Task: inverse folding
């Protein structure tokens, strides 16, 4: 047979019987959490052959480039981010480049703030950044507290502390220049040589409060981070098969396409040999390793009236983020509701991460209203109840393919 089987991902419970035989599609290596631990995933190694008939708990993964005719288009085209400085939406692989360009452009607006952004954003070692800004703040503090002392207004650029803690980090020199220092070559006291110094300009002595504000801004700032774009989408009521079918781009995974193929090949070769030998602890450890392969997750929430709300999340975000996402999409955000994971498991602990709940790299959840509250709402309504989603979201409703 051109089809080989591998163990499906972990799950709290098997999927409901109504959806059990419906095939889902996702990139190779995606362990779908909706399947029972005993279910198997079938992977097509010969795209010319049709898959076997779907069995309860089965799911089909298609390699990119080997999709069957009529396979669904990607559920999302990629992972996108919102730049906090420009408001632009950029794709994941363009995020860092765009952020750097945006910060560079901000120098024309506020050079002090822009240099602080550079220091905190482009230097990834947080311990080095902390030590750097604390040392820089000490320089500014000495000037503020002792403005009459000329020695505090000069910083020797070849000083060992300055070189090891400050000079080697991006953005630091721009900061000193922005707050009023200039480079000068001066004689070294008691030495017959010249050295380069940062020297505070004379006019800054009358603006010491500004210097203090810059110091506090330097200490309190955080890295500039692009915000994950939820790509909120609302779909018309759709058959369960379409709603549970996901085609994810490789943006959602830590591994490259080739690494995913290799990973699955090795797993397939080892699965029969290992299945009889693994202890429960070993299986749980392997499941956790699987969950760490995913950076993002695509989640769909099906409302009782059939409408589906879709959004993109970090795999390590907490369940509370999904509750907030749904709440913000409601016309009446006070309406109490519960979210049910595949298999009907209630998501009651909102502090758990999606990957801890098995809701990666994608999942179809259900929303259940508080029955007593909804009965009162319906009884008080003078007209026929419509969707609980906001009208502006329903205006852009789409159809799942």
Result:
């Amino acid at each position: 047979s051109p089809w080989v089987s591998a163990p499906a991902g972990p799950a709290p419970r098997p999927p409901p019987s109504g959806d059990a035989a419906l095939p889902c599609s996702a990139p190779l290596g995606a362990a779908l959490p909706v399947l029972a631990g005993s279910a198997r995933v079938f992977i097509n190694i010969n795209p010319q052959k049709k898959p076997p008939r779907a069995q309860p708990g089965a799911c089909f993964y298609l390699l990119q480039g080997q999709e069957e005719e009529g396979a669904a288009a990607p559920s999302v085209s990629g992972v996108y981010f919102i730049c906090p400085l420009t408001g632009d939406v950029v794709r994941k692989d363009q995020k860092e480049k765009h952020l750097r360009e945006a910060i560079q452009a901000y120098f024309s607006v506020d050079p002090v703030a822009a240099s602080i952004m550079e220091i905190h954003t482009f230097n990834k070692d947080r311990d080095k950044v902390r030590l750097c800004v604390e040392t820089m703040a000490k320089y500014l503090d000495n000037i503020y507290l002792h403005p009459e002392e000329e020695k505090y207004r000069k910083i020797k650029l070849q000083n060992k502390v300055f070189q090891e803690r400050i000079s080697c980090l991006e953005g630091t020199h721009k900061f000193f220049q922005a707050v009023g220092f200039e480079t000068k070559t001066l004689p070294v006291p008691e030495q017959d040589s010249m050295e380069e110094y940062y020297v505070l300009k004379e006019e800054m002595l009358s603006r010491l409060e500004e210097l203090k504000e810059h110091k506090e801004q330097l200490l309190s700032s955080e890295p500039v981070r692009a915000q994950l774009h939820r790509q909120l989408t609302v779909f018309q009521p759709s058959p369960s098969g379409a709603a549970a079918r996901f085609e994810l781009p490789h943006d959602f995974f830590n591994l490259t396409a080739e690494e995913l193929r290799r990973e699955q090949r090795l797993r397939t070769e080892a699965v029969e040999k290992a299945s009889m030998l693994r202890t429960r602890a070993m299986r749980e450890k392997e499941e956790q390793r699987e969950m760490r392969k995913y950076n993002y997750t695509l989640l769909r929430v099906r409302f009782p009236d059939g409408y589906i709300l879709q959004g993109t999340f970090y795999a390590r975000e907490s369940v509370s983020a999904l509750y907030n996402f749904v709440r913000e999409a409601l016309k009446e955000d006070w309406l109490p509701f519960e979210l049910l994971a595949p298999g009907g498991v209630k998501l009651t602990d909102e502090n758990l991460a999606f990957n801890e709940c098995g809701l990666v790299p994608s999942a179809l959840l259900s929303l259940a209203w508080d029955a007593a509250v909804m009965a009162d709402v319906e009884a008080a309504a003078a007209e026929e109840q419509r969707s609980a989603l906001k009208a502006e979201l329903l205006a852009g409703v789409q159809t799942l393919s």
The first strand starts at residue 3 and ends at 7.
